[in-house]
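Hi R.,

Here's the input for the adenosine monophosphate complex you asked about:
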Amino acid sequence: MSLSVDLKDLDVLTSNAKQIQDDVLKEILTLNANTEYLQRFLHGSSYKDFFKKNVPVVSYDDVKPYIERVANGEPSDVISGGPITRFLGSSGTTGGKQKIFPINDKYIETLGYLSTLSSLVTSRHFNDKDAKKGKKMLFLYNRSESTTPSGLLVALASTSFVMSPYFTNRPSKCNSDFTSPDQVILCPDNNQSVYCHLLCGLSQRDEVVGVGSSFAYALVQAINVLQIYWKELSSNIRSGHVSKWITDLNCRNSVSAILGGPNPELADVIEKECSNKSWEGIISRLWPKAKYFECIITGQMAQYIPTLEFYSNKLPIVSTIYGSSESLFGINLDPLSKPQDVSYTFLPNISYFEFLPVDHEGEMASIVDLVDVKLGCYYEPVITNYFGLHRYLIGDILEVTGFYNSTPQFRFVRRKNMVLSVEIEETTEEDILKASARATLVLDQSTNLMLTGFTCYADISTFPGHYVFYWELKAKDVNYVVELDENVLAECCYALEESFDSFYRKLRSKDGLIGALEIRVVQEGTFDSLMEYFISQGGSVGQYKTPMCIKSSEALAVLENKVLARFYTKKYLLLDL
Ligand code: AMP
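And here is the predicted structure with adenosine monophosphate in place:
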């Protein structure tokens, strides 16, 4: 199926989802029916009914041995009819350990296709003269690739994309669309690249119409870096010289060319804005023509909505794409929808999509096709891609929110396995996000502090076990130090607990099987350290998603080393009658 990038094609695609999905499955099965993996179930057949009846629904551990054999040098056809030319490493921040998935150029091409479609949809909604000729300040990053024992490359999707000819030869080249030259994006040292991204963005401040990254955290991290380095950045702009510690020559030379020489007037403007005691709206003040943020802000990323709103005076946040290393899924066709209301329209030409209802009974029988999902129901996607994954459970829970022509649209609800549990209760990512929004209100009403990062875990090392939330707080006014008021933080603990379900509250108050919830306030910069820890394990800034619940003891140790103070709920919880 060819991937033409034209908004008009969206109607054709979404009106013929059923036929296109059947064609995609036929194409995949014809390509893969004789692989060692599928041969066992299909005996060479490429019939849909046979496929649905015989091919099992699987998770990573089921296919891992096959994937590893190809990684270790056996031919691609152990698992895939088409050539496997590289592997994608998952970010490792959604479900624990890093996994690898076989792909070839088709995946990269599809990622480019979705990004371009999503950009077209966004610019259609911000369609004024400035937006058309302006640039985007995009915080995109590269990370060094590794190889499998057989010499095939392993990299994150974001790295594979920016390193591919598809990106470097993109039609809208000449760096006219981004403020940063490719040399900055491709710089393997992410500290140098974030600094240079900011320098390029500041020196072209009047052209910036959009500010973006793949996932929201990279934007929050860039704002943190700006807060630390603004004096040095403006001094570079004043003198026209890039700081000495930018030692990557490609990066240095390309950024020097963009600076073009001393610019004291611009340096004055930057210093005036950044030395203001409040950083509220700093993004809109430094980049006055910026009309939107563009990044994934749903799911785990939703905790950053208030932070981005604070720094931008509530610029719209366009949540662009839904995808994973296993397959890409779809785009947000309504860029102006609030982050909380975002839905993604699945594109039927990418992979073959099936859906397992949540709370299903008799797994195989209850799985439905893309066009057969029901409005308001919750499902886990099961994907069959071109590269060797067949009926693979993604581990995300989605809700059907509507249809675009005949193609369903989904709200991202949560990761399936990300739950807190001390006893037999299950507190999901969605519950945690809702509770945090309530606790943040308490914080907002009573203090001048904002919550810039959080995560949590279920501490069962004591009896009764209890939930522990790690909170990083920052004063809204940069000149103030963070002062912690015990009563307010105890109220925040209470607000978190109060919004959990009645089962939690019963175990907590009546049965005493869950202890008082605890907030551990950590030093500023702790969540950057947490990101650095995950990056050292194979992640990347570009694809980093702060885990909403922490399971790894090493990651917990990073947080524990930075705890400043501990607070507990003091009041008794009210039970539903
Ligand atoms: P990875 O393969 O490591 O990049 O992680 C893919 C996972 O990131 C998905 O399975 C989702 O859990 C999460 N993810 C990707 N896109 C979105 C999105 N638009 N909204 C919420 N979560 C997302």
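One thing worth noting: The chain is about 40% helix and 20% strand.

Cheers,
M.
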